[in-house]
C-alpha cells in the first residue's frame, strides 16, 4: 500500500474503526477473566462506576463504527456530522457525569448535562465571533475552540478538587483534549503530521478511557485508603 499522506492514513478504514476497537476488546476479555473488583475509591459509588463502565464500554465499540462505516454507508454529509456531534457530546458527558455523579448520579447527571452543553455552545459562539471579526474560519477551528474550552474547564475543576479519583479522571481527559488541540494547531498550520498525532488522543479517548477509570477507581492504593478510613470511624 503506497503512502499518500498522514491525513489519508488517518481517514483509512483500518484506523477507524478497526484500530480503535482493539483496546476495548482487550479490556472486555480481561474483565471476563478477572475476579470481581473491590470497594473502590468511593465505596458508596461502586455500583454507579460499574454501571458507568458497562454503558460506556459498549459505546466505545459503537462510536467508531457509527461515525465511520455506518456514517459512510448512510451517505456521509449531514448524517455523518450529526452522528459525529452526537458522539462527541456523549463522550464529554461521560467524563462530567463520572466526576459530578460520585456522590449522587442523578444530581451529578444534571450538572454533567449543563457542562456538556456549555462547552459546544461557547465554542460555536466564539467561532462565529471570530468569523465575524476575521472572516470565515476553517472547519478545524471549531473543533480547536471546543477542545480548548473543554480543557480549560477540566483544569479549573481539577484545581478545585483534592487529590484523588475525580482529579485523576479530569487530568486524564485534559491530556487527550490537549493532544487533540495540539494536533489541530498543526493541521491548521498545514503540517500533515498533525493527523498522525491525532491518532494518539483517539486511542486514549476511545480505547483507554474506560480501562483507565476502572483501574484508577479500583486501584489497590484507593482500596487501602478506603479501608483505613472506614476502620477509623
Could you explain the architecture of this structure?
With 233 residues, the chain is mainly alpha-helical. It has helices at 6-10, 14-33, 46-73, 77-100, 105-134, 139-159, 165-188, 193-207, 209-217, 220-231. The chain is globular, with a radius of gyration of 19 Å.
List the helices and strands and how they pair.
Elements: H1 6-10, H2 14-33, H3 46-73, H4 77-100, H5 105-134, H6 139-159, H7 165-188, H8 193-207, H9 209-217, H10 220-231
The Rg value, from CA coordinates, equals: 19 Å
Distance between the termini: 64 Å
Q: Report the count of strand segments.
A: 0
Strand content: under 5%
Overall average pLDDT? 91
Instruction: Give the SSE order as H and E letters.
Output: HHHHHHHHHH
Shape: globular
Question: Helix content range of the residues, please?
Answer: over 70%
Number of helices: 10
Largest sheet: none
pLDDT < 50 runs, ≥5 residues: 226-233
Give me the secondary-structure category.
mainly alpha
Amino acid at each position: 500500500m503506497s503512502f499518500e499522506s498522514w491525513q489519508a492514513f488517518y481517514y483509512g478504514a483500518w484506523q477507524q474503526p478497526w484500530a480503535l476497537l482493539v483496546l476495548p476488546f482487550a479490556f472486555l476479555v480481561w474483565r471476563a477473566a478477572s475476579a470481581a473488583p473491590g470497594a473502590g475509591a468511593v465505596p458508596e459509588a461502586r455500583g454507579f462506576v460499574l454501571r458507568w463502565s458497562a454503558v460506556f464500554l459498549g459505546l466505545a465499540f459503537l462510536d467508531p463504527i457509527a461515525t465511520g462505516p455506518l456514517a459512510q454507508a448512510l451517505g456521509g454529509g449531514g448524517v455523518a456530522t450529526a452522528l459525529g456531534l452526537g458522539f462527541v457530546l456523549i463522550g464529554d458527558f461521560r467524563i462530567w457525569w463520572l466526576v459530578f455523579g460520585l456522590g449522587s448520579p442523578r444530581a451529578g447527571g444534571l450538572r454533567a448535562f449543563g457542562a456538556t452543553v456549555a462547552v459546544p455552545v461557547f465554542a460555536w459562539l466564539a467561532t462565529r465571533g471570530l468569523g465575524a471579526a476575521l472572516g470565515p474560519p476553517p472547519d478545524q477551528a471549531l473543533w480547536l475552540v471546543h477542545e480548548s474550552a473543554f480543557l480549560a474547564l477540566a483544569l479549573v475543576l481539577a484545581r478545585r478538587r483534592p487529590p484523588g479519583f475525580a482529579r485523576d479522571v479530569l487530568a486524564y481527559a485534559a491530556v487527550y483534549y490537549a493532544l487533540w488541540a495540539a494536533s489541530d494547531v498543526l493541521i491548521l498550520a498545514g503540517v500533515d503530521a498533525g493527523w498522525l498525532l491525532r491518532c494518539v488522543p483517539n486511542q486514549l479517548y476511545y480505547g483507554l478511557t474506560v480501562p483507565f477509570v476502572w483501574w484508577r477507581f479500583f486501584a489497590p492504593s484507593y482500596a487501602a485508603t478506603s479501608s483505613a478510613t472506614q476502620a477509623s470511624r
